[in-house]
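Q: A small favour: would you put together sequence and structure tokens for a protein?
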Amino acid sequence: MAKIFKFMPNESVGAKANVQAFIARCRKDLDVLAPEIEWDSNFWRGEVGFTKAGVNARKVEAESLLDQDIISFAKAYVTYQKAHNPCVRATARRIMAIRCIEPALLKVKNVADISLVDPVVLDQAAAVARECYPATAYQASSELNRLVGFLLEHKLVERGFYWRCAIPVSSKIGRLDRAGKKASQDKLPPEHVLHYMAEMFSNNPQSSADKYVVSLFALLMCAPSRISEVHDLPSDCLHYEKDQSGSEKLGLRFYSAKGFGPTIKWVSTAFKDVAVTAVERIKELTDEGRRAAKWYEEHMDKFYRHAACPLVHEDALLTPVQICDALGIEYAGFAGQARKVLKNSSSPIRAFLEGNSISLDEVTLAVLNKYAHSRLPKGFPWKNEKKQLKWSDSLFCMRVNELHHQRGVSPIIVWGPGSSSISSALSITSGVREMQTVWDRSGYKNPDGSRVSLTTHQVRHFLNTTAQRGDLGQFDIARWSGRANVSQNNTYNHMSDDEYQEKIGSFQALKALAGPLEKITANSPVTLADLGAIGDVMAHVTEFGFCVHDYSMLPCQKHRDCLNCTEQVCVKGDEAKVARLKLQREAIFLQLAQAEHALAEGYYGADRWTVHQKQTLDRADQLIALLQSDDIAPGAIVRLRCDQEFSPLKRELAAKSSQSKLSESVGGETHYSLGESHGKTPD
């Protein structure tokens, strides 16, 4: 287990002395870095480069490095933070604050002394963050706040103060303009690239490097995951379980890197066979690595006897050829070449032998066993102690050079791939030496002839967007993705406006807003406005349609004689109402026959009742004909006129009309009379 400590400042000394004590303690007591990383180096491979803001971290020229007055503190700070928070990208994040502080100190104080940090320096550092990290300035802001809290807590500045940086998230995130939409779509993998990968997976590449890349990509397509999560899968990661219907489901045992913890990410039915095949191929590739790791767990005092290991005693002296065979070093079959290879200045075994004062002629398997144990990964046998994952149980337990295209695989040195192993194989990397990608080796190009490049995070965005398109619940998407914060789903959702419109149009509840027929189907209230009348109140339901009468003005004047009322509205397509109309028509026909019989018998009033029934039957026939007509679209509103209809409104209008005419007549006569009295001729 890695050694860590809690730094306790000395209250009796100044900030500068505490800074020096902190640096010395971190350099001496912390062992969280990989064994190949040297403290004095300014580029820690796989961790961080101590370069200025805005400079390629791999450029270690003097002018690109952090100022010498702050670089030692930077190394101590990122190491201390890594020890207390061993996140995958913690080191790269923590250095952001130092890179912002350094130019601010030089500008304000003329010296990069971390103990001189004050609010003025920090304001300048915030300006540097905005300039050098335009897309992720809010992350730099968060790291500055973290650094300030650390400096104040551990008495590493001369005077206490309060300062807070609050740079908002970039406005580019969530933008809806053309540039924002393009940036959103660029986070998704191109469709043709996914087809390329599917073809490679189907062809089952034989080289170890390509088999690793294609199989790992297949696992990334099974569930939204990060590279670190996939690399920490156990060898028995496949989990089978039956659902309530008895169908067998497949899941992958993950440990989320974003706060959700251990979980099972379920694989869709379409990818079930893909997941099983990918795991089988990776197991085949890594079996020897797990076997070696298991040996080191159980046989600390014996050299790992792999297939090419010399069959000699542990303490027997070895020839250069036997040493090369034991270590898996290629020597072209010549004894002289074997000795030459072992004496190469860049040979790790030479450095080990010289460091332990052992000559080449004194090497035994016991000596090589000590060398092999010195090359074991940090924290062995644990690959990830937090997840309780041992190297011997890891799906991605490999050996050194397992994925190298030219160097021979070391049979004795356990190794595991990192994020760069897959990213450099999928995406074009900038550097002095151009690396071939898996696309280049397989001859794939973009439609425009350019090189194919893809990031693994694009797959995560793709799966999250696909889940959004499939209407998976937000909590389920967050759980499937292994994130604790559901609100972060929005960052990975890249559905287009057209897709949202199509989805909204398919909602039954929203469909009901389109017209009365849809509302009837959805059993939703129908308003007067839906039926072409004035008002937003609900329309009254009748046997055959809806009544648009405003009952707040006066009660029904038809005594529910709806068929002869012009305030009844029917909707084409409501088959239940049409069926009732047909039943009512049959009843009216019977009533008409009875009225005609009564009329023939001479019953008083039968004539008026016969006329009424004929009129009602005629209107029922008209309504049924219209509601069943192919010329009328479903959802159309049908409303019959009735010129003979009596209503108080018509009576009032008629009364006003006749009163107006009477007034005009009386007015004309009066005018004429007055005209005569004044001796004038009327016009």
Residues 647-683 form one domain. The two ends are 119 Å apart (CA to CA). The first helix runs from residue 15 to 29. The CA atoms of residues 541 and 547 lie 6 Å apart.
